[in-house]
Amino acid sequence: xxxxxxxxxxxxxxxxxxxxxxxxxxxxxxxxVVRYLGGSNAGHTVVAGGKTFKLHLIPSGIVHDRxxxxxAGGVVLDPEVFEQELRGxxxxxxxxxxRLKVSQTAHVVFPYHKLEEQLKExxxxxxxxxxxxxxxxxxxxxxxxxxxxxxxxDLFHGELIEQRVRSIVGYKNxxxxxxxxxxxVREDEMVRKALAYAEILRPFVCDTTELLQDAMAxxxxxxxxxxxxxxxDIDHGTFPYVTSSNASACGVSAGSGVPAKAITTFVGxxxxxxTRVGAGPFPTEQDNDIGSRIRERGHEYGTTTGRPRxxxxxxxxxxxxxxxxxxxxxxxxMLLDVLSGFETLKVCTGYRVGGRPxxxxxxxxEVMKEVTAEYEExxxxxxxxxxxxxxxxxxxAAQRYVRRLEELLGVPVVLVSVGPDREQTxxxxxxx
Length: 432
Ligand code: IMP
What we know:
- By secondary structure, the chain is α/β, with parallel strands linked by helices.
- The chain contains 12 helices and 20 strands.
- The chain has helices at 19-27, 79-91, 111-124, 136-145, 158-180, 187-201, 208-217, 252-256, 289-298, 316-326, 365-370, 396-409; strands at 6-11, 32-35, 44-48, 51-55, 68-71, 76-77, 100-103, 107-108, 205-206, 222-225, 263-271, 274-276, 310-312, 314-315, 330-334, 344-353, 356-357, 372-379, 413-417, 425-427.
- The strands form 5 sheets. A 10-stranded mixed β-sheet has the order 9-7-5-2-10-1-11-15-19-20, sandwiched between helices.
């Protein structure tokens, strides 16, 4: 089976949907794998050749021999994380040079972004967002403000970058002192780092927009690897408890420089239950034994921060919103094995506010705080299912659970995952 066109893999919940496994399956059939948003707030664990890699920035496709990997302009890139990942890959014998390209228009994350973020989050107390402190928000803030931004291309203009970094650091240090009584960062150190960043990135930098357009003109197949999830999208997610970029499918074109119409298939990835890290409304959360049980069985601890994830029932109301927003054609349903052993399972089919049902997913943050979930109950199944290799061999109740989710989402669930390995993937239809 070969890819028919260009595919995008999108998370349909609040991130951590196990997109990495799906990207990995599709990478084999792709010529180019593109990361187009976010930064080192994301985390993918990839197992290849018996080795485990934790990647935050470099597309996981790099562990396969074939695909060219691209970090496009919509990404905010921390060169220090990038370098660590490079070293880890090279130490494992993976040849990176010539197979990895970085956009000259990506924005650069500096240590002052992380410091600003930490100081701000600390100052917010109970109102904090619970970010990953990877400098993502402050770097995108600088991108939008323009005058304080540094793009990858800027790093290669020696004297200019020195002046620019000095002026940015001067401004930020004054701000950090005034707002948080913090001494900020050292100007000379930031200049030194900027020059070092140029050397780290030099072998990889190019105009990735042109590269992707040439690749398409040559009939190559592109795979766009989403990061975070639709409900964390800055415009369409549960604002303000979101990330700072368009984590839904709406961000693909802007983040990569590829026309929206070039993407032929959107594969949505959802867990069989729901998780969330950080603060913000989570109507189906089970802050009780049910949630703990899901967390332990699903190893629900953050890849990037190690934080325990909040866990709860599948929210079909929210996930259907994501499916429609992203124009998802097919859904991959992950971690079904985690739900084995529950007598009954609950699925959220709608929200109510003040006793009244909502017609649509709330985009007003204050309304979202007030909602209560309406549930439907389905029978669970006692047996472990990690050894099952065909959908029709799953316990009847598990099949029924998947079919009901499919009905509620309104798009086919083409794949069910019952474990991390490739063989633990039950295809109902072709993924693309
Ligand atoms: P930020 O992206 O670090 O600014 O964090 C904003 C919100 O998005 C926080 O609630 C984070 O926990 C969440 N977040 C960011 N990246 C991920 C991810 O890859 N998976 C899950 N949640 C994430």
